[in-house]
Amino acid sequence: MKHILSLFIVIFPLLISAQESIVIGHKEKLYSETLNEERNYWIYLPPSYQNNNYGKASYPVIYLLDGDTHFITAVAIQKTFTRGMYNNMPECIIVGILNTDRSRDLTPSKSSFKHNGKVLSENSGGANQFSTFIQQELRHQIDSLYRTNGYNILIGHSFGGLFTINTLLDHPLSFNAYIAIDPSLWWNNSETYIKAESKWKETQFLNRFLYIAMAQEDQAEDKQQHSSTIKQFCTHLIDSKQTNNLTAAWKYYATENHGTVIMPGIFYGLKTLFEGMELPVKEIPNNPKLIEEQYRKLSRKLHFNFIPDEILIENLAKYAISVDRKDSALELYEYNCKNYPDSHNAQKNKSKITSPLTTK
Q1: Could you read off the pLDDT of 121-157 as tens digits, one per residue?
Q2: Which residues fall within 8 angstroms of residue 219, CB to CB, at 6 or more apart?
Q3: 331 and 286 Cβ atoms separated by less than 8 Å
Q4: The dihedral of CA 82, 87, 91, 92: what is its sign?
Q5: pLDDT (tens digit, 9 = 90+) per residue, 326-348?
Q6: E strands in 227-278
Q7: 52 lies in which domain range?
Q8: Do residues 290 and 202 both lie within one domain?
Q9: Which of 176, 225, 260, 348 sits 20 to 30 Å CA-CA off 138?
Q10: What's the whole-model pTM score?
């Protein structure tokens, strides 16, 4: 017994050190000429991205503000929506942008607020420069290093939500979709809301998408303007239906506060954006053509050509086999071969179905 215990004492540390880490992303950095500083960002890549058995697909990119705070949340939602056969969004690359000077980068103007005679957020008003950094420097690096498909989503909370809406108003073509979570539209006496009122009918948004998540209305005297301005923006502008080719939606989360609304805001923002992507799984083995029909509708709605992720079609083919529809499985594998002609996996699966041993 003593020898066994001694052996365990020797081996146990080795077992601990041999354990594999769970990794959801990696750290990168970029020196910004615009901001004159080094900027850090985190990257999440879909599981199939570096799997050489799958085709070299290209992916939409989510640019996530306050990445150091919200990166894990966004990755968790992405993985939830792209597992199995009931997918609610495409696999995406996620870029979490870390902060250096948050109030400087995310606010559109110099603060006019004072406390005890001192200006609050004195270094504010750098949103235009930060927007230039994201659009011209960071995106250039992401597009150069990774297989991106040109569909870009911006997500921001609080000051990040303020930045998101200002980007939509000032540079509507910068992103395809904008998700603003409890945005700080109160900034400088609601100047962004006032700007939006004047721009709403004259700006051509050219098929962009906007989703706003609003947390519970705060009755505290110093926070009432925060809630009331978001509500005004949503009810007076989004609900007006005069959106000039902007698909806009919003949701009030009565039981969530400014901090807890982040997760449901990202969750439902992405789910609303890609509404119509989830397939009628049980019907696919009898009619595989439903997939192409549904993705054509989705592509028309989003004004961008989307094709199903390879792993999704593979899972559906396996399901078709499980219900004894090998003919449908073959059609699905052929569909993957068409969409991903360089995929060893798709070719191998097709060969398995068509080989003499499996067709008997």
Answers
A1: 678 899 999 999 999 999 999 999 999 999 999 999 9
A2: none
A3: no
A4: negative
A5: 999 999 999 999 999 999 988 99
A6: 246-253
A7: 26-273
A8: no
A9: 260
A10: 0.91
